[in-house]
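Protocol step 4 of 6: structure prediction from sequence.
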Amino acid sequence: MKAIAVHPGKAHTMHMRDIEKPELASIPDGRGVLVKVLQVGVDATDLEISEAQYGAAPAGDDFLVIGHEVFGIVEDVGDKVDHVKPGDYVACTVRRPGKSIYDTIGRSDITSEETYYERGINLRHGFMTEYFVDDAEFIVKYPGQLKEIGVLAEPASVCAKAIEQAYAAQQRLQVWEPKTAWVMGAGQIGLLATMMLKLRRLNVCTIARSPAEGNLKAEIAESFGAHYVSTKNSSLDEVAKEYGRPDLIIEATGNSMIAFQCMNVLNLNGALVLTSVTGGSRQTEIESDKINLEWVLGNKLMLGSVNGNFRHFHDGIADMALGSAMYPGTIEKLLTHPIDGMENYEQLLPLLADSSVLKVYVNIADA
């Protein structure tokens, strides 16, 4: 069967290749699920892997099948699988267990090992192929009524986890009722996080570089009920004066410098959640004494959040279901750039390198 892969560590090696179709029996104890891939989303992670910024091939291979955002339909299941059946739509988690205590209790998304295993990213083949097999533990049933936005299940899980982690960590305060949230960045993560925070009744500012006029990203953010602000028109200090200092910031720009700029405007007792994976070598100067003073005296918190486990996929899908009801037709607007067929994979990288493009995904098969 066909697959799209790269040679990790070597830039610009994306190619199509033939690989063997996986077998259900490769998963032990009757727990296998064979999935026909319908769509695979791609994002900046895939671009950075193609540029050899990070990523590694599975043991024994010199290539890595890319793609970590998958939507598919079940073709067959093992005899011990009971939560999905042939014909069900599904998504699939990304992180796979290592050997830490967190990995053994189903929390591989917070592994304490330096080596991590992620499908389509590091040491495990991804989903940009015709079929895949995985353990039922990682297969997430998806409602057919929302199949038009199924390829957003994985990014939605990232947002759901980031928000959950903020609220969980803020239990340190005993009482935390955030009123104002900022979302830095208006890509798929930023806009889905915007929606989820509005569903939680927060006053949300979605902050990005591009001016609002004629901007689809601004239109989507405002359709969710958020304020869209361009950093070309307003500094973060000016945004804070107009809308209030944020109790919660979700940083999703892909730019590490922005994360440190956010430290200057976070409200007392606030939480800053970093979700960007930055594989570059950018450096920046910060007002370290001022930030240290304000963060210590202000009881502020910064945390990192990556990937989601089974529960976060469920939470993200639930939020998309509610968001579809509350903001009809809005989530679908994120799906801006479909590519029909893996044979057109050469279209991927130019689109991913274009900052004006919102969501790129590959249509691999019909249901």
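Step 5 (inspection) to follow. The two ends are 17 Å apart (CA to CA).
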